[in-house]
Amino acid sequence: MIPLLSGTRLTGTPSAMAAATLGYDGDPDDLDLWVGSEVLRTYADDGARRAMADLRTFVGRCPVVSSGLGDGSTSRFTVAPGPRLGDDSIRLGCNSTSDSDTLRCEALIVRTGSTLLVIKGEGGDPGGDRYVTPLAEAALHRYRTTGS
């Protein structure tokens, strides 16, 4: 889980949330499992806009975070403009390292009105982030047509 997306202090308190998870393992003998998730967070006020600004600011100020467990594990975050989806979008990347293992994750955070749509993918597969943008496009289309 990208911890930046889980703290209500950073991203505000949503008035409603929904989530779904998808796993993909193309080769059961390979350890490169990919897991994707989708989260919708709806705010009663301008919390979605503020959350986007807070994430950009936080990653800019603190791109490397230690686990705090004393084991040397860290997470490195990057933020970049996202694709032209919704009213605003950002691409948030993360590499979490512990010992010799690295877990890569990427999230597209799309704001449409007072709602944040977060599509996140994580796994050991280099290039596994190729699934995130098409999933975000499909999820945004579904949200716009069904409201969920």
Helical segment tally?
3
Helix content estimate:
10-25%
Q: Tally of extended strands?
A: 7
Kindly estimate the percentage of residues that lie in beta strands according to DSSP.
35-45%
Low-confidence stretches: none
Structural class from helices and strands? alpha+beta
Q: How many discrete structural domains?
A: 1
What strand order characterises the main sheet? 1-2-7-6-5-4-3
Shape: globular
Oligomer: single chain
Largest sheet: 7 strands, antiparallel
CATH topology: Protein Transport Mog1p, Chain A
Return the string of H and E elements: HEEHEEEEEH
The separation of the N and C termini measures 22 Å
The CATH architecture can be given as 3-Layer(aba) Sandwich
CATH class annotation: Alpha Beta
Estimate the mean pLDDT confidence: 78
Explain what you see:
The structure is a single chain. By secondary structure, this protein is α+β, with helices and mostly antiparallel strands. It has a single domain, classed as Protein Transport Mog1p, Chain A (3-Layer(aba) Sandwich), CATH 3.40.1000. Helix content is 23%, strand content 41%. The protein is built from three helices and seven strands; from the N terminus they run H-E-E-H-E-E-E-E-E-H. The protein has helices at 8-11, 47-61, 132-146, and strands at 16-24, 34-42, 64-66, 74-81, 88-98, 101-112, 115-123. A seven-stranded antiparallel sheet has the order 1-2-7-6-5-4-3, with helices on both faces. The longest helix is centred in the middle third of the chain and has 15 residues, at 47-61. The two termini are 22 Å apart.
